[in-house]
Amino acid sequence: MNFSENHNLIIVLPLLVPMLTGIICLLFWWRQKFQKGIHLVGGVLTLIASLILFYNVWENGMIVSTIGSWPVPFGIVYAADLLSATLVLLTGIVGFCVGIYALVDIDNERKKFGFFILYHFLIFGVNGAFLTGDIFNLYVWFEVMLISSFVLLALGSEKAQLEGAIKYVTINLVSSVLFLTAVGMLYGMAGSLNMADLALIVPLLEHQGLVTLIGILFIISFGIKAALFPLFFWLPASYHTPPSSVSAIFAGLLTKVGVYALLRTFSMIFIFDQDYTHEILIVLAGATMLAGIMGAFTQPDLRRLFAFLVVSHIGYLVMGIGLMTSLALTGAFFYLIHDILIKTNMFMLSGMVRRMGGSNLMSQVGGLYKARPYFALLFGVIILSLAGIPPLSGFWGKLILIKAALDEGAFGIAAVALITGFLTLYVVMKVWIDLFWKSQPVDELFKAPDEYTLLPMASKMALVTPVIILTLLSLGIGFGAEHVLALSERIASQIIDPMYYIEHVNGLSK
């Protein structure tokens, strides 16, 4: 199998562009206007690079490249199948949109202390995690993300931010230790860290009980990063503390990297004892759905409520992994595409609510429908899609997942998914009524200036345009579901048959 230098460049471009953007911003630390320009150009070029990668993978199949010409499985491998390419494309889209939004949302002090640098290194880490074919390198990319995200979370040094950042980094360091321990044990048994190589070696190992134990360590480690029950508390304790643009990029991407890692390892490597490990994933998925939505019921703060909804809907994705059928994975991928766009959009909307209403405490906001009818409509479309109202994007993924569960006789998780969907609808409609339908509080202490009105037109456009782009994409997913379904089915077929991935990666060594 021959891979040209063009293919090598295509797969590393989504890594090189954000890395170089961050480095250039670092070199011009003291020139904020120049950094802003580089930030915008870098966002556009990262999106273009991700589009090029996706197009080539869709048209020509999987792209694989080794670093330093080391043969497989000894060298670091980057592999882009349709799953990785789609996730890199989604990263490019939300990274570009949030990057525009951040120009207004992030204050000058945070920009001065390295926001643009950290933002692009975060995108760099996310893309690296999606493209690596080496499980130790996956650990390295997790650490790149952890360092960038921790500093972004703490940037500004407000008390609430620091408290949230400490919880965030502490539990994620625990996850990293467990991950590294599991990687060391796996290497000791298999003698390889290349994921395609491990997929061939691990099923032949003598001590499969120990392999299952290592798999449990991976579930705990990746489960923490994905915010699975019961170790999800760090997410609602931290995601509401930084500026809305930081929360938006976190909600859209970071937990999805943990879900992706679960999917890769438990569809290729830990497949010997699926009746046990995947049953655990189904139980955790159901518990995550219910714990997240129950937490959302009691939240007076809009962003904290949204953070619990992020937790709850991770359960749908892990449900698909636990069922591990072609239909379940199709539903999970469909829902993943929807979820990345919607969760990013939700937190950008929360920032606009704070500017228009003066607060994210829902008791202090009201009457926005009368003041902002078009914004009320936009907000309504997004939260109804989140709740899964047909024919919006959230409906189709849930429908396919529930059907997959019923086909497998998994009536318990199907019931939990249905209940969570109805409870989500109740929660988001209550949010809409509180923010838009009820009267504005009459107490003068609760009244705050409408910051949005005071913004210049260019700043308003920078806030609204990304929200509209993601909303249109979400509507396109719902009303053009057949196209997204075709993509999801193709991804599912590649994951169900891991030999597709294995043969393409190992083809480099022939």
Question: Would you mind describing this structure in some detail?
Answer:
It is a single chain. The protein is mainly α and 510 residues long. Helices cover 78% and strands 2% of the residues. It is built from 22 helices and two strands. The protein has a two-stranded antiparallel ribbon. α3 (82-105) runs antiparallel to α11, α14 (326-357) packs antiparallel against α17 (393-407) and α17 (393-407) runs parallel beside α20 (457-479). It starts with a helix and ends with a helix.
Cα gyration radius (Å)? 22 Å
Class based on secondary structure composition and strand pairing: mainly alpha
First-last Cα distance: 7 Å
Low-confidence segments: 1-5
- Please count the helical segments: 22
User: Into which percentage range does the β-strand content fall?
Assistant: under 5%
Biggest sheet record: 2 strands, antiparallel
SSE layout and pairing:
Layout: H1 5-27, H2 32-60, E1 63-66, E2 77-80, H3 82-105, H4 108-112, H5 115-131, H6 135-154, H7 159-190, H8 195-201, H9 208-226, H10 234-238, H11 244-268, H12 274-297, H13 302-323, H14 326-357, H15 368-371, H16 373-387, H17 393-407, H18 411-437, H19 451-454, H20 457-479, H21 481-496, H22 499-506
Antiparallel strand pairs: 1-2
Helix pairs in contact: 1-2, 1-5, 2-3, 3-5, 3-11, 3-14, 3-20, 5-6, 6-7, 6-11, 7-9, 8-22, 9-11, 11-13, 11-14, 12-13, 12-18, 13-14, 13-17, 13-18, 14-16, 14-17, 14-20, 14-21, 16-18, 16-20, 17-18, 17-20, 20-21
